[in-house]
Write a structure and sequence with these properties.
Layout lengths: L2 H15 L2 H9 L2 H6 L6 H10 L2 H16 L8 H18 L3 E3 H8 L3 H13 L5 E4 L4 E4 L4 H28 L1
Antiparallel strand pairs: 1-3, 2-3
Helix pairs in contact: 4-5, 5-6, 7-8
């Protein structure tokens, strides 16, 4: 690998696996990344348009860099996964700022059609990857943020159930 390729893979991986604050601290502000990011076509636009919330430019950069990924022998098999996950990151980042937003304004922000966005968001919502609802009659997307304490409570209950099951299995084994 060359150093430029290493930065290319690092940025691609960071875009889909880190939160926005970590992305800013570890990638966007990194002098190592900044020194070579312009050497890789479309990578600078991809990173900074997502970070700055310029979603129309971001979607164009995703389309442009997909050709580069398609030609890369190491990551070309993962192109569809990368494209799906990077779009999900952008949708989550956009929707995080709103309690509700019209489908029309979101599709304009991303530079895509209402139908494409509706279909795309529906898939992410039905798989549990986005926590929002689409009101197709009024053309509104309503976000439903999950409460942090509620998530902790549910996780605690699940872990407690697992622990009880293990204790019961252990007690059955030890009584024989």
């Amino acid at each position: 690998y060359s150093y430029t390729q290493f930065i290319y893979y690092t940025v691609l991986a960071a875009l889909i696996s880190t939160d926005r604050n970590t992305l800013r601290d570890k990638v966007v502000k990194s002098p190592e990344v900044l020194s070579v990011i312009r050497d890789v076509p479309h990578l600078h636009t991809l990173l900074f348009s997502l970070f700055k919330g310029q979603y129309r430019d971001f979607f164009q950069a995703v389309a442009d860099i997909s050709e580069s990924i398609r030609g890369d022998r190491y990551v070309h098999d993962h192109l569809s996964f990368f494209l799906r996950e990077i779009r999900l990151v952008a949708y989550q980042q956009f929707l995080q700022s709103y309690k509700s937003v019209t489908l029309q304004s979101m599709s304009q922000a991303f530079g895509v059609s209402n139908q494409f966005l509706d279909k795309e968001l529906s898939r992410f919502i039905s798989s549990g990857r986005l926590s929002c609802k689409i009101d197709s009659v009024n053309g509104v997307i309503e976000t439903s943020r999950k409460d942090g304490k509620n998530n902790q409570y549910v996780a605690l209950l699940q872990q407690g159930d697992l622990l009880l099951n293990r204790v019961q299995k252990l007690s059955k084994v030890s009584t024989y």
